[in-house]
Amino acid sequence: MKDKKTTVYEDRQEKQRKYMEKHAVLCPHCGAEVLDHMTECPYCKQPLKPKGYTPLTDKQIKKIKLITFSVGMVIAIVVLVCWSLFWK
Ligand SMILES: [Zn+2]
């Protein structure tokens, strides 16, 4: 029983270690090991760029707004058409 518990604990530690290895990056400001999803270095408090994070450009924001607007319009038209068909 005691041995089993230790194994489970070690498994968890091993998983955590693997996770840390997979996601560990070096802080560009102080060189400390940090995780790639962090937005701020816990050691030097400098801002970090999380992996896969790219700030949206104005062009992308306009595109997203246009898509959202188009989808909204399509839904509105569909609802209107259904509504008018239903009430005829
Ligand atoms: Zn740092």
Descriptive notes:
It is a single chain. This protein folds into two domains: 1-54, no CATH class; 55-88. 58% of the residues lie in helices and 7% in strands. It contains two helices and two strands. Strands 1-2 form a two-stranded antiparallel sheet. A hairpin with a 6-residue loop joins strand 1 (24-26) and strand 2 (33-35). Residues 27, 29-30, 32, 41, 43-44, 46 line the site of zinc ion. Residues 27, 29-30, 32, 41, 43-44, 46 line the site of zinc ion (ZN).
Strand content: 5-15%
What is the count of structural domains?
2
Shape: elongated
Which sequence of strands runs across the widest sheet?
1-2
The topology string of helices and strands comes to HEEH
Number of helices: 2
Indicate the topology.
Layout: H1 2-23, E1 24-26, E2 33-35, H2 58-86
Antiparallel strand pairs: 1-2
The protein binds zinc ion.
Zinc ion is lined by residues 27, 29-30, 32, 41, 43-44, 46.
Give a concise summary:
58% of the residues lie in helices and 7% in strands.
List keywords for this structure.
88 residues; mainly alpha; 2 domains; two-stranded antiparallel ribbon; 58% helix; elongated; binds zinc ion
